Each structure stands twice: as C-alpha cells, then as structure tokens.
Amino acid sequence: MRIKSFSYESDDWVLQKLDLQEVNLLVGQNGTGKSKTLANLNYFNLIEYFLGTMPGHQFLDDIMKWEIEWTTKTDVILEYKIIIKVIDYSRFEIIEEKLLRNSIILLQRKRDGECQIYSENTHRVETFTPPHDKLAILSRRDTKSFPYIEEIINWSKNSRKLSFNDISQEFNGTYDFNPESEPFPLIFSKLKEQERQNVINNFQKIGFSISEIRYLFNGNHHYLLLKEKGVKIDMYFEDLSQGMLRTLNLLIYVEYLISKNETATLLIDDLGEGLDYIRATGLGKILFKLCEENNIQLIATTNDNFLMDVIDIDNWNVLIRDGKTVTGINKVNHPKLFEDFVYEGTSNFNFFSSSYLPSRL
Amino acid sequence: MRKIAIFVEGNTELIFVREYLRKRFEYQDLEIECRKRQFGRFDKVPYPIPNPNAKFHFRIIDVGGDGNVLDNMLSDENLLQRIGYEKIIGLRDMFSESYKKAVKQPLRIVPAISDKFIERANSRILEQAKSPTKMKLCFAIMEIEAWFLAIPNIWAKKGISTAQLKSVLKTDYSTIDPETTFLHPTETIKDILKIINEPYRKQADEVESLVGKITKQDFEDLQNSQKCNSFKEFASNLTLN
C-alpha cells in the first residue's frame, strides 16, 4: 500500500493535490513547504495518535482539511478525507470524515457527528457516534467487519518519518513523535545475520570502511561497536561522526523495513544533510534503489544539488509556492516538461534552479 | 597566442583530444593545459604541454559528466573571454542516460533523436551565450569510442587481425560506419579487446594504450573518410580564422 496523492488546506496554507509514486524526491526553494508537506503526511503515519500529534494551533476556528489517497496491493484506491476545526490552542473537533474505496463510500461522518460505516461481514451499513475529537476510523475496529480500516492502520504502523539531520542514537528526533520507537542499536539487533551484513555492505558502498558491526547491551543501554578497516581500536556508535551516524541509522532502519516485508511509507526530511558529495550521492542512489526494489514507498526532501543530480527527475516533485498555495510539478501532471528536459543536456539540479521551469509553466 | 577552451565530459575525451592536438600540430606552436573540475576544485591533470611562446593555446577541461559540459561552457564564457579565449568548444557523447530515456525500449540508434539533442544544444547556446557564434557543443556519436573503432591502425597495432575483428563485429569492418552501427561502442571495444585478453574499463592507461597508437595520418584519414561525421564536425571546429 502506498500514498497515491495528498492535499492539505488551512487558512494559512494550501497544498494542492500532490501526486506521489513509489519513490519520490521533493525539491524546491527554501520556504516552499517541503518539510511542512512531510509533517502533514506524518499525521497519517501516526494515525492512531492523529490529533495528539497536532501542534498547538494559533488560529481559533481555523478549518484544516486533508485528503489522502492510497493505492493498495490489489490496486484498489482508498480515499480518506478529514475536516477539523480548531476549538482552542490544543482542542480540535472533527467535523467531517469520509473513507471511500474506488469512489464508493465506506465510512462517512456527518456534521452532526453521526457516522455510517459499511460492514464487510454483514454487508450492511451500521451507524454509530464517535467522540467529536476522535477519528471515526479509530472508533470502530473489527478485522472482519472493517478490514479496510485495518489495512490503513497496519500501513501506518510500519510507516515513519525521519529527519535526516536529527537522527540520533535514540529513534525519537525533535520533529518526530512515536511512542513505539526504539533505539537504532536495538533495531539492528533484531536483524538476522544476512540482514546485518547487508547494512555493512551498503555502508561500504557509500564509502565508509566499516568491516564489522556488533550489538551490545549492558543492561541499561544498547550499543553498536564498529570495526573500521585499518583502525586498531573499535568505535562505539556514539563516537561516529554525525554523517556516519545518520547514514548508518538510516541504513539500519531501511533494512529493518525490508526484513518485515510489509507495506510501508518512509518519509525523510533533508536527506543528505551534512554529508559530503560522495556520501550524499552514494546514499541517495542506494536508498532509492533499496526502496524501489522492496516496495517501500519513499518520500524524501532535499536541498542537496549533488543528490538531486543522481535521482531520476521522473521521481521528482518540484514544489512551487505562490502566496499560501503550494503546487507540485511532477511527471504525472506535467509529462511534457519532463520528457523535453532530457534534451537539455544539463544537470537535474537545473530542472528547477534554471529558467527551464519558469519559462515553460 | 590564440586560445581555445575545450570542455569534455570525461577523461577518455580529454586523453583523445590531447593526443589529437599533439598529432595535428606535431608539437609545434602548441601549448596544452589540462584541467579537471570536480567537487568545486579545478585541478591540473596530466599531461600538459607548456609552451608560453606558442601560437596556439588549448585548455582542455574534464567536467565529469555529459550533463555538465554545456552548463560549464555557458557559465565560464565570461571569464574565458576576459582572459582571451576566442572560442569555446564542448565535446560529449551522444549515448547517455538521457538518450536512453528519450529513445525508450528497444534501445537503438535513432538519428532523429540525436538531431533533437544537437538542435536543443544549439538553441541553448543561442539563447544563453553572450557570443553564440564563438561557442559550439560537439557530440561524439554515439560515443568517442566510435572514433577509435573507425581507425583500423589501432587494432592492427594491437595485433588484432581483420578476420578477428570480423568475428566480433559479425560484419566486414572496412565497410561499416561505427557512428551509425554501434549504439554503445564502448561495449564493442570491450568485445574486441577480449580477443587479446585485455580489459576496457575506460581507465586512463587503457585509453592511452589505444589513443597512443593513432598517428597524424590516421586522424587525417578519418577526417577525410566517409565515416564518423561527428569527428569531422569536431575537428573542423578546432580552428580559428
């Protein structure tokens, strides 16, 4: 299952329908809303904590709308729409909620709060009234009656957002909220021998000369001990440079997702931040390849022009902002722009940094 | 001293152009400077011919990638003109990831697509260069290795007979035009060199081993032949009126 499209609207910011593929690179000038897009997508990664993850809102009576479409393994389109009203700084009211499958309504919450939901078990529409501040899809859980809800929940359990420049030893980054997170060394310990070797191999491909990684637990803390070629003393995880640490953590987490063999969406903000040219391009190529080959949907943002040059522009979404409205330019909605660009004989970075786009939009 | 800057996509092209200039000028009245632009650096690379009293100066710059050639030509134009360069030439292969994307499957030589790449390069120069008449991007079609394939003496000197060439190429070597026959000439050279158990990974010594065998006469014969029009185009642009 992967996200097919996403849009968001509030009084101060509008993201027009953004088409998404298996692997995606969001690019754009500073301030165009790359990180904000990922932050809004992340509410769905953490759907079981949806309103709990909402930041304190400054605008009373603000109305926020989300629309997200998923494509399932069987090519069914699930479409989910939510409208929320801000009551005060930390209280919200769900005023509309709708879930559709191939345009047929499965769940609908009306403005008076009453919900109707279709049961696969009884083939009937049932009625219930969830709390005004709780999503209807979380209020009725039944794996036989509402398997389509379980599909969304299961997808969200495997989906994560990482801020690349904030990947520390602990899973929780400043911008993440995930009560089920675990330290990366512990995640590494759960990998099988071959999977651990895959992490080492990929780490080497990116240019780091690590030949061995061992997991240790002293009763309190989880550690990794790394052996570097030509270096006598082994390194503790915490002693790695920020660049190595971020890269290793990401590779561990991706291998973990692959090992689970379940549908997942991985969001990464500021991919490549702080890495040198060789590591950034190496990581970009490996990450996109691993995700594409293992059915992990990847949505990454970057400002790194070297990294942009090694990611096929067919996987790009160029975000352009006009006032409060953000639009994504991609191969789905502007195919000719992308087809013609191959003849420009220039680097990918120039797709949005040069006059190519402005002169053609 | 009259100056021309030549931007090339990689080391193979740098080695070839350097050798071509040496042989063409027979080391007379010639100064060559070789540079590599990478990671923000602009390093000197082998092998220059320093000659401050030469009539002609060529600066060959490896910009590390086909997509960087025209960009670098345009971005360096002002500076190069200020320091006396009269002409800016670029050389890159036609065969590239962009070409493969444009052609789609099955991969093959499509002259109309090659023309489109050439046309767009010329348009970009007209649109963006300050002195477009003094700038030209040349394409080695489909790769510079096609030009190696068009020089029979290279293979003879490597000890590869005509019969052996025919067994690999599956056709009469003397009649084909490598430019219109081989989509990926690098692979063809790999197959040929397997005959004598030599690799071809585009490493400097391997390229030198081929290019070093080309004489001035070989270059002239190629330019006067019916083969590899892209070489003629390139060679003719390396002149100053």
Structure report:
- The complex is a heterodimer of chains A (361) and B (241).
- Chain A contains eleven helices and 17 strands.
- Chain A is of the alpha/beta class and 361 residues long.
- Chain A has a single domain, classed as P-loop containing nucleotide triphosphate hydrolases (Rossmann fold, 3-Layer(aba) Sandwich), CATH 3.40.50.
- A 14-stranded mixed sheet of chain A has the order 9-8-7-6-5-4-1-2-17-16-3-15-14-10, sandwiched between helices.
- In chain A, α5 (193-206) crosses α6 (242-260).
- Chain B has 241 residues and is of the alpha/beta class.
- Chain B has one domain (2-237).
- Chain B is 49% helix and 17% strand.
- Chain B has a six-stranded mixed sheet, sandwiched between helices.
- In chain B, β2 (30-38) and β3 form a beta hairpin.
- In chain B, α1 runs parallel beside α10 (204-211).
- The longest helix of chain B has 18 residues, at 111-128.
- The chains are: A alpha/beta (361), B alpha/beta (241).
- Chain A binds chain B through residues 277, 309, 339, 342-348, 350, and chain B through 39, 65-71, 92, 98-99, 101-102, 116-117, 120-121, 124, 137.
